Amino acid sequence: MTTQKNDTGVVENADQNRFELALKDDDIAAAYYRIDENGNLVMTHTEVPFEYSGQGIGTRLATGTFDLIRASGRKAVLKCSFMGRFYASHRDYDDIVVG
């Protein structure tokens, strides 16, 4: 099930346990998660294809991911180093980050 919920272009693909941002052709940037025993989304890994480096794709993916988590009323646990760095400079997401 893929549902688009915000204007960043990020969608949640719950079947694949990831948030996706469509790029050119069939390329995507993705933020992967697992669900812990408390129902939190444990963000485990973020991938942006190398050829899109330095274009703000990771920031757009992280913003869209955090916005979708907030909109759904869920919480995030950040085990992914990229998401952790993003959050460190975007503390306006304090309400959704736990652990």
Could you explain the architecture of this structure?
The structure is a single chain. The mean pLDDT is 93. This protein has helices at 57-72, 81-88; strands at residues 2-4, 10-13, 18-22, 28-35, 41-47, 76-78. It has 2 helices and 6 strands. A hairpin with a 5-residue loop joins strand 3 and strand 4 (28-35). The longest helix has 16 residues, at 57-72. It is α+β, with helices and mostly antiparallel strands. The chain has a 6-stranded mixed β-sheet with strand order 1-2-3-4-5-6. It has a single domain (2-93), classed as Aminopeptidase (3-Layer(aba) Sandwich).
Summarize this structure as a short list of keywords or feature phrases.
99 residues, alpha+beta, Aminopeptidase, six-stranded mixed sheet, 2 helices, 6 strands, Gcn5-rel_NAT, Acyl_CoA_acyltransferase, GNAT_YJDJ
Number of helices: 2
Q: What would you call the shape?
A: globular
The top level CATH class name: Alpha Beta
- Indicate the structural class: alpha+beta
Give a short account of the largest sheet.
6 strands, mixed
Fourth CATH level, the homologous superfamily: Gcn5-related N-acetyltransferase (GNAT)
> What's the CATH topology name?
Aminopeptidase
Return the CATH architecture: 3-Layer(aba) Sandwich
The count of DSSP E runs of length 2 or more, i.e. the number of strands, is: 6
Cα-to-Cα separation, first versus last residue: 27 Å
Overall pLDDT = 93
Sum this structure up briefly.
The protein is an alpha+beta fold. The protein has helices at about 55-70, 80-90, and strands at about 1-5, 10-15, 20, 30-35, 40-45, 75-80. Strands 1-2-3-4-5-6 form a 6-stranded mixed beta sheet.
